[in-house]
Amino acid sequence: MPTRDSYAHGVPSWVDLGTTDVEGAKKFYGAVFGWEAEDVPTEQGMEYTMFRQNGKAVAGMGPITPEQAEAGMPPFWGSYVNVDSVDDTITATTASGGSVVMPAMDVMDTGRMAFISDPTGASIGLWQAGTHKGAELVNEHGSLFWNELMTDDTAAATTFYGDVFGWLPEVTDMPTGPYTSFWAGGKVEGNSAAGMMGKTEDMGEFPNYWSVYFAVDDVDAMLGSVKDNGGQVIMAPMDIPEVGRFAVVQDPQGATFSVMKPANPQT
User: Fold this and answer.
1) Which residues lie below 8 Å from residue 79, measured CB to CB, with a gap of 6+?
2) Mind listing the pLDDT tens digit for each residue in 69-97?
3) Which domains does the chain have, with CATH numbers?
4) Strand (E) positions, the chain?
5) pTM of the full predicted structure?
6) Strand 144-151 to 47-53 pairing
7) 83, 7 in Cβ contact below 8 A?
């Protein structure tokens, strides 16, 4: 179902944006997706923005911290995997060759979180749900559709995520090369976890990273809206048979994300 009130262990459940311009990002995403922004106070003294689509929580946003800015981190979309225990997952992470980027912390009564890095250097968040279960709407226009790892070591990543999240890989030959789909706890509805692509030489140099895909009704119309509102098209639209049409874009602050009209919409 496109509406969700829970997620299985190992299934990505949330995405949020770290940005240098919260108000500018509100205007951009409000214009391109129709998101409504709700600011929520936090114990850290800053506000966290909840983006809603038709009243349903679809994504979050917060300002990049001074430490992140000092380290030269650009605005970014982060992905979070739902886990039964953040602390147990951190133990599995370090035992499997990963590292802890941000230690575990409680976020009031909404949940417990941390950020980890896999052995290839790509970072992903952990979310142990409290009152906040994750995205309440997925796979529809303007909501989360997919999370995808781009890495130069697919073998190491496959082993790591299998050990840490229990992900089961399924490799398919695609026009762009082998593509790995991960399943959490078996190939059943609701357990589709994430995807992975291997980097190729013609892609140039960039760090291994997790990318976020949002579903849209019309990719080309979305690209027009992105440009009209100060964003950029990073990769022109591409059609992948039996998968869908997608493109990669960047918001005015520099955060990159993908938009896709799936050939076979998920439910």
Assistant:
1) 12, 14, 15, 124, 125, 147, 194, 210, 212
2) 787 888 999 999 999 999 999 999 999 99
3) 12-129 (3.10.180.10), 144-262 (3.10.180.10)
4) 12-19, 36-41, 47-53, 56-63, 76-82, 99-107, 111-117, 123-129, 144-151, 167-174, 177-184, 192-198, 209-215, 232-240, 244-250, 256-262
5) 0.94
6) unpaired
7) no
